[in-house]
């Protein structure tokens, strides 16, 4: 199967690796390359393709290895794997790379509930120390005066804003945001379906039909096509005979080429999209997390949910966004104010938002606001506006208006918080850029 390597990805990775093995006079280069982007876009797989093409030896570290019940083990592991990569370089005479997958999952802090352990601190410090002294990496309890060759480090992740800020500064880490454009997507998807005889027009139609899907969606789609034949095989031999026909046999089953017509692919792809939507609409993780957050036994409400019942106020459709006017956002109605009046009056909010806020306060909930820019909206990395203190409706509306005015180019959502159980009862986007 001929896989596609994006020229942008190839250039970024190849330049970083090559540059770290060159002795450029008076040029300070970052040791770490951080490849970040949204989930499922093939960051790790593209790295592996580049390593294979360049003939680079790779030593892997998983983000799941960056925590341990024994303090200091993950930091020692990173030093050990770095020295292992240096040994490969010396023995084989070929370039070597230390690759850490999902660094943010192992060492990042996503919110106030993320535990910050001694190991997390030591991992950050170890990576910074290696980036500053790449030829002098020692194991705890020993010292070797022999200088090591400089070994580049490549890390992948979804959101490096969750990492310790001094680690990701430009002197230590070079950042590369991977978001495949349409040409990249056409090339990658064409490589996935290259054995199946799909023409360029079919690939374009498939990519354009599912334009918002990540790259791994198309790999899952191709695998899903084979399910039909496997189901027919199971029904033909019987469920109780599957093992002896698949494992304990000298003639494993063979399958004919599935139906890879473009209309059939789109039909199966739409089934996968429906399953994604069901997962998003269910939101069971909120229900389960709320149960875990409660100190005592959870009492279910009459609707069988862990949430305390919240009654929505009358809903009024939001007005469409008018691009060139800050005062015409969905949550702020048109209003002329004199230039000399700096204060913000709550009545300029739409009646819909005012009723929602009033409803929250009357039920004893606290009101909050969160915002996120267009790029971080994909990773759901929301940030909080100033917290609204007390239960005064006027102050809450004024704070909402101020947040809307300060972040008119961002997504903004209204949240309701149950102060007793420290959990959310409402999340509603009231403004889109």
UniProtKB/TrEMBL annotation:
Cite the CDD domains for this sequence: RuBisCO_small_like (cd00307)
* Domain spans labelled Ribulose bisphosphate carboxylase small subunit: 340-433
> Highest taxon of the source?
Bacteria
Membrane-crossing residues? none
Q: Where is the composition biased (Polar residues)?
A: 338-351
Record keywords, A-Z:
ATP-binding, Nucleotide-binding
Segments of this protein annotated with the region Disordered: 312-351
Tell me the GO molecular function terms: ATP binding; ATP hydrolysis activity
Q: Which family does it belong to?
A: Belongs to the RuBisCO activase family.
This protein is called Ribulose bisphosphate carboxylase small subunit
Q: Which organism is it from?
A: Leptothoe spongobia TAU-MAC 1115
């Amino acid at each position: 199967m001929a896989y596609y390597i994006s020229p942008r990805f190839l250039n970024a990775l190849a330049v970083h690796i090559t540059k770290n093995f060159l002795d450029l006079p008076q040029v300070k280069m970052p040791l770490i390359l951080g490849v970040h982007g949204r989930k499922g876009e093939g960051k790790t797989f593209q790295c592996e393709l580049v390593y294979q093409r360049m003939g680079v030896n790779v030593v892997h570290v998983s983000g799941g290895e960056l925590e341990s019940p024994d303090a200091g083990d993950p930091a020692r592991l990173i030093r050990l794997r770095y020295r292992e990569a240096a040994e490969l370089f010396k023995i084989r005479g070929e370039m070597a790379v230390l690759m850490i997958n999902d660094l943010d999952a192992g060492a990042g802090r996503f919110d106030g509930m993320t535990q910050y352990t001694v190991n997390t601190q030591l991992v950050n410090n170890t990576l910074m120390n290696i980036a500053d002294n790449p030829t002098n990496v020692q194991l705890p309890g020993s010292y070797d005066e022999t200088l090591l060759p400089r070994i580049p480090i490549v890390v992948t992740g979804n959101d490096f804003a969750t990492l310790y800020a001094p680690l990701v500064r430009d002197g230590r880490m070079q950042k590369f945001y991977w978001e495949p454009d349409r040409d990249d997507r056409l090339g990658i998807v064409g490589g996935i379906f290259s054995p199946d005889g799909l023409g360029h027009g079919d690939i374009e139609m498939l990519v354009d039909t599912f334009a918002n899907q990540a790259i791994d969606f198309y790999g899952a789609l191709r695998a899903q096509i084979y399910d039909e034949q496997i189901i027919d095989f199971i029904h033909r031999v019987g469920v109780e005979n599957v093992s002896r026909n698949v494992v304990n046999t000298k003639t494993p089953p063979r399958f004919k080429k599935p139906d890879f017509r473009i209309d059939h692919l789109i039909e199966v792809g739409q089934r996968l999209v429906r399953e994604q939507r069901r997962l998003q609409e269910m939101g069971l993780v909120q229900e389960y997390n709320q149960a875990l957050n409660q100190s005592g036994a959870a009492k279910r409400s009459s609707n069988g949910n862990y949430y305390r019942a919240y009654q929505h106020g009358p809903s009024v459709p939001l007005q469409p966004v008018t691009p060139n006017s800050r005062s015409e956002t969905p949550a702020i109605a048109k209003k002329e104010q004199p230039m000399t009046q700096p204060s913000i009056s709550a009545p300029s909010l739409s009646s819909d938002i005012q009723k929602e806020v009033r409803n929250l306060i009357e039920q004893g909930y606290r009101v909050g606001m969160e915002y996120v820019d267009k790029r971080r909206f994909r990773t759901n990395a929301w940030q909080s506006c100033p917290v609204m203190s007390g239960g005064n409706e006027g102050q809450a509306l004024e704070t909402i208006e101020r947040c809307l005015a300060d972040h008119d180019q961002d997504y903004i959502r209204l949240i309701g918080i149950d102060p007793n159980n420290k959990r959310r009862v409402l999340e509603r986007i009231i403004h889109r850029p």
